[in-house]
Amino acid sequence: MKEQKNRIKDLLILTAEVMFAENGYEGTTVRDIAAKAGINPALIYYHFESKEHLYRSIFELRLRLLTDSLNALPVNATASSFERLLSYVTIYIAGIRDNFYFYRILNSEIFSFRNHSFKTAILDTVKASADIFRKVVKTGIAGNEFRNIDTDLFLMTLFHLLHQIIGRSPLAGELLNLEEITEEQINGRIKNFICHQLCLPVHPCNNSHNKSINYHEKYN
């Protein structure tokens, strides 16, 4: 009985996630979700009480999994701040790719002015994830590995860049010719961007600077 209940909840979350991403919160009804999932609408109210509760459950699940993944990354005492930051970025990129629909919803919420009862909870969880990145950057600055940059502006730029590129927004697709390059090349450009924004000129990652410039010229 419990397994069946969990299967129905998982089905509703996955179905609603796609529909919220494609149609928006206001453009999706409980009946739409139930019809797509092939179940009685009453089951949604039984498992989640309301559409808003279902919407909130999606965020709680996905953001918890992201935070757990970041916190579970093994600490390598010999790794540089740049290497640790790249490890976190790799996990974040995988999260976007594996949960494409959720990140479309998250983008919509982050950049919207729509208020609801759990907007603060969403932003607090996102900030908690950002704090993990912030700590690494601050450590790199303190250890003279990174430039003394505005950490908050850098993180805002980085997260927006990742959402646009990995989420393959139309703008990123046009500016970066995403259909013409491989994921490995995309990841390389992201790595070079982080290096050139953060690292001091003597950092080993800057050895690839000329290659990055040539690559950029080739595709722009």
Describe this structure in words.
The chain has 11 helices and no strands. Helix 1 packs across helix 4 (51-71) and helix 3 packs across helix 4 (51-71). Residues 209-220 have low confidence and may be disordered. With 220 residues, the protein is an all-alpha fold. The chain folds into 2 domains: 1-48, Homeodomain-like (Arc Repressor Mutant, subunit A, Orthogonal Bundle); 56-206, Tetracycline Repressor, domain 2. It has helices at 2-23, 30-37, 41-48, 51-71, 81-98, 100-110, 119-142, 151-166, 170-176, 183-198, 209-219.
Keywords:
Tet_transcr_reg_TetR-rel_C_sf; Arc Repressor Mutant, subunit A; DNA-bd_HTH_TetR-type_CS; DNA binding; 220 residues; mainly alpha; 0% strand; DNA-binding transcriptional regulator, AcrR family; Tetracycline Repressor, domain 2; 74% helix; single chain
